[in-house]
Amino acid sequence: MPQEKRKKAKGGMTNIIPGKVKKFWDEWNLRGSVLFSLFLQILLIFCAPTRKRKGNTFVTLIIWSAYLLADWVAAFAVGLIANSQNNMRNKCETPVQTEDLLAMWAPFLLLHLGGPDAITAFSLEDNELWIRHLFGLLIQLIAVGYVILQALPSELWIPTSLMLLAGIIKYAERTRALYLGCLGNFKDSMLPPADAGPNYAQLMEEYTSKKIAHVPADIKIEKEFGGGAAADYAVRVERLSDLDVVEGGFKYFNIFKGLIVDLMFTFQERKDSRRYFFARTTEDAFKVLEVELNFMYDALYTKMVVVNGKMGYFLRFVCSTCLVASLERFAAHHKQKNGGHPPNQAKMHPFDFNVTYALLIGAICLDSIAVIKLIFSDWTIVLLRYRRAKEFLLKTRKRLTVYRIGSWSKTFGRRWSNSMSQHSLVRYCLKERFKWIDVTVDWFGLKDILDEIQYKDYKDVPDDLKIFICEALKEKARKAEDSKTAREICSGRGDWVLSQSACQSLIWSVDGEYDESLLLWHIATDLCFYEMPSSTYTDPEVGRQSSKEISFDNERKFSKFLSDYMLYLLVMRPTMMSAVAGIGQIRFRDTCEEAKKFFRRKDIIPGGKFKESSLLSWFKKFFPSSRGSLLSWFKKFFPSSRGQSEPKHSMPWSWLGKFSSERKKKLMREKMEEACAALLLIETVVKPIEVKGDRSKSVLFDACILAKELKKLNERKRWKVMSEVWLELLSYAASHCRANTHAQQFSKGGELVTFVWLLMTQLGLGDQFRVEAGHARAKLLVEK
Questions:
Q1: What is the radius of gyration, based on Cα positions, of the chain?
Q2: Could you list the residue range(s) of the whole structural domain that residue 287 is in?
Q3: Any alpha helices (H) in 115-194, and if so which ranges?
Q4: DSSP 257
Q5: What is the Cα–Cα distance from 417 to 728, expressed in whole angstroms?
Q6: So what's the pLDDT on residue 253?
Q7: Torsion sign across C-alpha atoms 161, 165, 166, 171
Q8: Co-location of 78 and 146 in the same domain
Q9: What is the pTM of this model?
Q10: In a domain, 237, yes or no
Q11: In this structure, are 79 and 100 located in the same domain?
Q12: pLDDT tens column, 507-520
């Protein structure tokens, strides 16, 4: 390269950035950053609410990226504005109007740093950083103030000042929301006043003095009576209106929000909650729980607690007024300065005015959307005094949802994902990947993410499963006359059911650690589930009824659903299950390794160089080429709403994609049947631990022993016992997981185990009710 074409830096290094690229960046970096910041705000206000309705990895990744980029881009743009002002002053040839416009853009970025109402924290850990955000508010306020002072005297000081006020309010709202969402402050806000109880010392002093004076005296104790347990559920079941659901959810949110920070509750609260939920149908009970959890989500992850109330409404009015007035003042100045025509190219870049209008109109539109959402939110409905006004808002919101969203109204109208993830150990072993792929993704730390994409399935939570769970927990709650009995019932991990069902010979399977019991019953469930030919029974994925009774088929499907769901929690949500998981990860990996070794020896999966999940099939899975595969890939990340029928005249490629999917399910079903049959053929007269020792934590053939013992039961009793054991394992995990891990799931579409946790608490099951006697009223009786 000729020497004259090289551009040397001061240090003597070659500048490898082409001149055109550098010129383009210098001219458009600020404008692009400001517009990109606006785009991120639009993305967040529309996408952030969907994360509580979808546990989709792709949607979560988009929201996470936008959340992190929003703060970074806004702060970066403020720095670019300050740098541009310095460059303009050094050149002394930039028109004053441009410097005024740049100074006006800075408060917009402060507004963007405040973020939308729909998301203040992406995770609970973000709330703990409220001090950092407070410090960031002060730093950004200083930076924006510096930019504005640099531009003085400014012809746009009025709209700039109005935008600055709106930006300060927005950023302060976010910082306040983070402060209130911090678990320590959240707990402090709910702590009752210190209670010393009745004056024991004074009473005993008086009693002692009477005794010394030989005056006959006695102390009479009148304990606070909590009422009988039978009175809690001896109530008539009533249906709830939509308004009753919202009000009930808000009432019990205010009572039980302390669950998140492990506060204790009284027997009066237990009695009131039990009476309310025993009088509800399963559908209404789950609706109330949805509303209750939705209020908890809003309190921890959004600005709803801050913007509701008199001060919140006043600040929102001031902010909206500032935005509209700023647009009016800027438009008036623009018209006066340019006679209603675009600015002269020699004086100012015409695109700068367009950017300013886009920022103003965008800010007003986003604020209008936030105000509309606030008006029709559950928070506003419960704060209104008149029932007619509440019902009007509810009906209007429902109509707008159906009208605007159409067939997706059911998805967008619900408050959680209504889905349960599924993961099967046997299926995982049969769909083995290339070893070099595992090594590569593990090196990048992406193995867990790839496992979720490839091996995790989603299933909608069936209504009959909700009924099964709710009725079973109500039956347990009827036996829990006091908190001590309730704690004993919650400590059951299947032993309670096995004892009640006269299956003492199976108690060994639940006497070990929780993760061992879970893996044993998971594998045994698959072995029993896939033992029958596919022509007789149907996989719950397909949805056709069995030739047996509906109730029998339901118990079988419940066992399979809960089995795969609990394994998903154990393997893919180890943080949530850490309180009960033990060495679950080690046990799972050892069991998988033994299963793969066994399947290779039986030629169920190839053991040579090429495996069934070849590179080509893996490539097609993640980079679909055919239109049918592309459709199935798209549906995996963007599932349609339930009940949406297929068009009558569907495209041929759509039919082919559906046929291909059904064929894959059938092939996998056949392979599962073959694998389970091979496992059941192994003689298990001698216990595996006596042959292998205890170094390996695999429970594969222990599960075969359990499955064979279960097969000795008649089919009806077998599936009844298995479904009830799985419910106990689920309820044990729900009541023993840490409360903050449940709270973390609010922003990830929610988990069924969180609903079970909250329902158990509402029915009086658990160890949160530690005030059982209340204040005793003592009287000193003196005989005359």
A1: 32
A2: 1-192+243-383
A3: 124-127, 130-151, 157-181, 183-188
A4: G
A5: 23
A6: 95
A7: positive
A8: yes
A9: 0.84
A10: no
A11: yes
A12: 999 998 999 999 99
